[in-house]
């Protein structure tokens, strides 16, 4: 195996996961917005994310740039295939970003910007679920031309994964708000987190049972021997983690629900990677076939060696500076 291509596969997987976790919880805040009717509590919810939300989206930009540079075949294939959900997602993210800034300035029509924030967050999360589902079910490529009549991005499976991502981001958002808020708002988030955890458990079970029937590669990966015994710990650990999240919510712990929700996402992401490995264009093109020329990968690696620590350092520093509880009357 080419270590250079494997290194880039690992870097890309890490960057995508950083985006999912970091932007996931602030999208989750918007998803939870319609269920909170008190404007002061809504202010607190937004104030927990204001210092970090734009930095979180940096990881999405970096992921797109790295995909273009390191795996151009995938970039040129994936984007035209998913043009519509990607454009809707970007429009929703812009809509949400505008709502972040305008809601605090608006007086008479503040509720409209609250709606814009909630709708933009929910649509963006749903579109990311559509993209995820399309990637799992696959999309056809023949002689560099896209075949979309057999693998469309709007199918029962992709619609379900879109809904599942909304619930997942909602759980991350509730966990984040539990860690950052107090009193009545925090109490509400404990209740929402429990409900969302049940929904996430149901969604994970359905997706786990549904996915192996999508393609023989996935069925063989998970249910052939001895793979079944090697991979069985993953769903068992996931169930244990969900049980522990429920325990931390019942005991009213502050940071543990959020941290272990991230672990649950990591386990789901690991299962996704196991199902598709080693394909970047599902079941047709592997990492090695899709990679750029070796000289290009080396050139890019030199740049990322400097850029990634800076981005990680900035992210950690920002979260450290703006740590602590947000209460009524305070903000950044």
Care to count the β-strands?
Answer: 4
Number of domains: 1
**Which outline best applies?**
globular
Find the structural class using helix and strand composition: mainly alpha
Write the layout of secondary structure elements.
Layout lengths: L2 H30 L6 H9 L5 H4 L1 H13 L1 H10 L1 H21 L6 H28 L2 E3 L2 E3 L8 H25 L2 H28 L5 H8 L3 H5 L1 H18 L5 H21 L2 E3 L3 E2 H4 L3 H28 L11
Antiparallel strand pairs: 1-2, 3-4
Walk me through the structure:
The protein is mainly alpha-helical. It has 15 helices and four strands. The chain has helices at residues 3-32, 39-47, 53-56, 58-70, 72-81, 83-103, 110-137, 156-180, 183-210, 216-223, 227-231, 233-250, 256-276, 287-290, 294-321, and strands spanning 140-142, 145-147, 279-281, 285-286. The strands form two sheets. It has a two-stranded antiparallel sheet. Helix 1 packs antiparallel against helix 7 and helix 1 crosses helix 8. It is globular and about 55 Å long.
What characteristics describe this protein?
single chain; 332 residues; mainly alpha; Formate dehydrogenase/DMSO reductase fold; two-stranded antiparallel ribbon; 4 strands
In short:
This protein has 332 residues and is mainly α.
């Amino acid at each position: 195996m080419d270590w250079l291509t494997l290194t880039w596969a690992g870097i890309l997987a890490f960057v995508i996961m950083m985006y999912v976790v970091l932007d996931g919880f602030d999208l989750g805040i918007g998803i939870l917005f319609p269920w909170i009717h008190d404007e002061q509590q809504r202010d607190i919810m937004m104030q927990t994310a204001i210092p970090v939300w734009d930095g979180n989206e940096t990881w999405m930009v970096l992921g797109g740039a790295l995909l273009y540079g390191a795996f151009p075949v995938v970039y040129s294939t994936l984007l035209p295939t998913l043009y519509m959900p990607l454009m809707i997602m970007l429009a929703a993210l812009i809509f949400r970003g505008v709502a972040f800034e305008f809601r605090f300035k608006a007086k008479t029509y503040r509720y409209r910007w609250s709606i814009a924030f909630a709708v933009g967050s929910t649509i963006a999360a749903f579109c990311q679920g559509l993209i995820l589902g399309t990637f799992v079910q696959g999309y056809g490529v023949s002689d560099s031309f896209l075949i979309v009549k057999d693998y469309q991005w709007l199918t029962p499976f992709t619609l379900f994964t879109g809904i599942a991502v909304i619930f997942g981001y909602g759980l991350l958002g509730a966990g984040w708000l539990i860690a950052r808020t107090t009193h009545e708002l925090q109490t509400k988030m404990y209740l929402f987190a429990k409900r969302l955890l049940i929904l996430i458990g149901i969604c994970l079970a359905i997706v786990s049972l549904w996915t192996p029937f999508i393609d023989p590669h996935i069925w063989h990966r998970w249910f052939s021997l001895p793979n079944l015994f090697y991979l069985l710990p993953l769903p068992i650990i996931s169930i244990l983690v969900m049980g522990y999240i429920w325990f931390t919510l019942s005991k009213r712990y502050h940071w543990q629900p959020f941290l272990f929700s991230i672990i649950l996402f990591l386990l789901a992401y690991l299962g996704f990677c196991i199902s598709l490995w080693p394909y970047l264009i599902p079941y047709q093109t592997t990492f090695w076939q899709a990679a750029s020329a070796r000289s290009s990968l080396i050139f890019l690696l030199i740049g990322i060696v400097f850029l990634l620590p800076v981005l990680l350092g900035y992210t950690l520093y920002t979260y450290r500076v703006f740590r602590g509880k947000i209460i009524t009357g305070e903000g950044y």
